[in-house]
Amino acid sequence: MYSISVHSLAFKDLDQKLKGIQPPDLIQLYGTFPIDEAKPWANYLSQRFPNACRIGMASQKHISNGLVKSSGATLILSYFERSHLTYNSAPYDNTKVEQSGQRLFAPFLADEEKNRTSVYIVLVDSKDALQDEFFQVSLENDLVISGGRAGLSGNTNSWVLCQNEVSQKQAVAVGITGQCLTHQNDLFVDNIAIGRRMLITESEGKVLKQIDHLPAQQIYQRYLSNGERISLSLANNFALKTVHNNIEINAVPLSWESDGSILMSEALPEGAYVKFLYFHPVQSLLSIAPKIQSLSEQSPDSIFVFNCISREDYVGEVPNDQLNMLNQILPLHGAYCFGEFFSSQFGTKSMQHTLTYLAISESGCEPKRKPASLQLPDERDSLAPMFNLISNTFEELEQKHASFGRSTKTDSANSDWLHDLQTGLLNRFSLIGRLNNSQDIAHLAVFRIRNFRLINQQYGYHAADDLFAQLAHYLKRRLGTNSVGIEFTCYRLSANEIAVSIHNRIAPHKIFRLFRNLAEEIENEEFSTMKKVEQLLTLSLSVGMASALDQNGRALCEQSHLLIKASEARRYAQMNNQPIYWNGDLPESTSTEENLDWILKIRKALENADILAYFQPYYDSKTGEEVGAEALLRARIDGKIVSPALFLDLIKQTQLYAKITLFMLAKCEHILNTYPNVKVALNLSVLDFKHYATLKALRHFFQRNNVESRLTLEITESESIQDYEWISPIINEFRNAGALLAIDDFGAGYSNLEKLIALNPDILKLDGCIIKTIDKDEKLQKLVQHTNNLAHSLGIKTQAEFVHNEAVKQHLVDLNIDYLQGYHLSEPLSESDWLNKHKKQKI
User: Fold this and answer.
1) For residues 286-303, b (16+ Cβ closer than 10 Å) or e, as one string?
2) Any long-range contacts for 99-106 (C-beta under 8 Å, 24+ apart)?
3) Sorted alphabetically, which PROSITE patterns does this protein's record hold (predicted)?
4) Angstrom distance (rounded) from CA 381 to CA 391
């Protein structure tokens, strides 16, 4: 797709302006004239472009090909190749706001979900500021909405256009649907919260009477002018910000009342905590540079801007600041509004004093174009660092107060131990203090860098710490820009763990989606080492999230236990090869407090023959025939089959682990002796070779059985085999007895490659972390290709795990991987189900 715009001062000039222009699919008309003058424009467009979707609204200023226009009209003409447009219009009733939104979107939501539109441009004519209830339907259906409210300064004759109709008190929506359609939306806000939190102690509607039990005007005078009376124009630059019912409210003083109260632009409820919000353009200019760079890398086809009428971000017709930076990507098209619409994962809101945009591309199925290099703003004279310094200082003071709780003044006097010196983040002690002393954390996420040890070994501790600091900065920036109205705090828990607390009562699935998207973004991000910018590294993460309440408001755990639960969820995610897990989805028996109970359950399972062997087949990539199967441990607990991921790490600390290994060995022996054509693979760890009874049982096994390459011993590489000189003779002993050797989870651990290959394994099993996205990641394709070539050059066969779809399978077949294993081919089968396939071979 692509878009162009045409600016015309008068209706009579349209013919000349539109000469030679092909009929578009979508027309947006933004004009500075009242409703009676808009109707001839609408009639002309319907005659000239009868098949186009036509929308528009009254706009005091508009943007045509990157220039700001204050007169006439701008026509934005968009041409789509692979997308479908639908539109609807409905009356807007200020007394029935939510119903008005439902009527507007009802036709779109009536479609089947697979055909449902997710990207909308919405224009509304309303005399009053738009209430967020109008967008309740977007919260329930995950709609992305951009647009704004019509308006003309000092004029009540604003309007909106839908096809031929020019109307007032009306809303119009255009939905864009396409298989290859991608979109990105964001907002730029020129404000920063400064100062301490204050409590609204008395208010009535929009009249703010008392803050911290003092007259509201007195608070403004105390903090902004040292007690002197200040002008209303100066106070207009300082709104009061709060979050109420998960909605951010920015209330601006409108007039001083005679009793010391203030008439505000928005109602601030009693009991709400507020901060001063300072509007200043330099604050956001530097902070948005990474966002604009990211947008440039997405290579959009069109960018539609909806800017606030209060923003003076141009001189003459030439834009400056944020508009100028966006113009470097593509010439902008758009309108100035009396309220701009912005969608995040927490729904759609009507904003004030913001610049919002919608970037669209139909090339989502094609390789991305090379982004243009951007000219960034000059930092020398920026006030942004000063604002950030003030804001962060107050934030740290509040965090310390929350962490100390009831601690003594002596403790509070020296609080350096609450911070991590490397990153400046609050540390584990601070988080634990806050969890125990205050009740303001609703959700907690723990991010762990899985490849941190490898980075330490390869680049040194200083580089690894620097990468951690970069991750902390990235998290704070992305949370600050992508989560409007979300209050959060970051903590460093350990060398490779960072925690993020969320202080808003928001549904867990929305916060879960926020952290899941963040984790995906981070794993796709490239970080540079401290000394060499050209050395780019990627971080591998596992994330656990815990919530105090579930989706229905029922208690999941006490706030003081959130860190324990988030850590449990993170471990569960890593053990199950999941990017993120939530405590509400954890099996009940995974609680740390129930570790002893788990040991008892496994002991009883052994006594009652409830320890089971499951078998997951693996296949020849060329013929598709089954080659063998990997023996996998399962346990029947309370009538349910559970994975060892829930208990194996715990059991390894007890003698039960050796008994389980001996059980699996006996099961493999029975199968090998009963089914002479069957091949099995048995997982062993370094612990098994170091355990006297297990090693003795393995030797006796090979003395009485001639396995003839039908048994493969899989040793997990991710456990970091270090005692090569000690373990090599044992492995060679078993190989001489007929066993094959496979290195399991290759690519997930940190072992020395040279020494690993020196073990001369028969099979190299490639871990799921380098297989699962090989159909999308060219770097992983090259890594697997080179690993496969190296293995084959040494006479080692390769086997890929986590073959979870046809695309991954085909890539692995094309790369000449020898064996394939994964749920796409076969899930783990019970012993009886697997052996039923081989009964014809039974002696």
Assistant:
1) bbbbebbebbbebbbbbb
2) 100/134, 100/171, 101/133, 101/134, 101/135, 101/136, 101/137, 101/138, 101/171, 102/136, 102/137, 104/171, 104/172, 104/173, 105/137, 105/138, 105/141, 105/143, 105/173
3) EAL
4) 19
For the stretch 619-652, pLDDT in tens is: 999 999 999 999 999 999 988 999 888 888 778 7
pLDDT of res. 476:
80
Rounded CA gap, 705 and 697, in Å? 12
Q: Rounded to an integer, what distance in angstroms lies between the CA atom of residue 650 and that of residue 404?
A: 34
Assign 272 a pLDDT band (cuts: 50, 70, 90): confident
Token representation of residue 412: 């509070």
Measured in residues, the chain has a length of 843
pLDDT digits (tens, 9 = 90+) for 799-825: 999 999 999 999 999 999 999 999 999
SS3 340: strand
Helix (H) or strand (E) holding 42: helix 35-48
What confidence tens digit (pLDDT) does each residue in 207-256 have? Answer: 999 998 888 998 888 888 766 788 888 887 788 888 766 556 778 888 89
> Residue 153 — very low, low, confident or very high, per pLDDT cuts 50/70/90?
confident
Alpha carbon distances (Å) from 542 to 447, 584, 771, 842: 6, 17, 17, 44
CB atoms within 10 A of CB 736: 9
- Does residue 829 surpass a pLDDT of 80? yes
Q: At what angle do helices 508-524 and 461-482 cross, to 10 degrees?
A: 130
Q: What is the largest CA-CA distance in the chain?
A: 101
**What is the reported pTM?**
0.55
CATH number of 595-841: 3.20.20.450
CA angle 812, 813, 815 (to 5 degrees): 60
DSSP for 444-509, written as a single string: EEEEEETTHHHHHHHH-HHHHHHHHHHHHHHHHHHHHHH-TT--EEEEEEETTEEEEEE-S---HH
Residue located via tokens 């584990």? 428
Distance in angstroms (rounded) separating the CA atoms of residues 306 and 146? 8
**pLDDT bracket for residue 409 (50, 70, 90):** very low
CB atoms closer than 10 angstroms to residue 521: 14
> What CA–CA distance (Å, rounded) separates 420 from 493?
9
CA distances in angstroms from 154 to 151, 157, 472, 692, listed in the order given: 9, 9, 47, 90
Does 3.30.70.270 match the CATH number of domain 384-586? Answer: yes
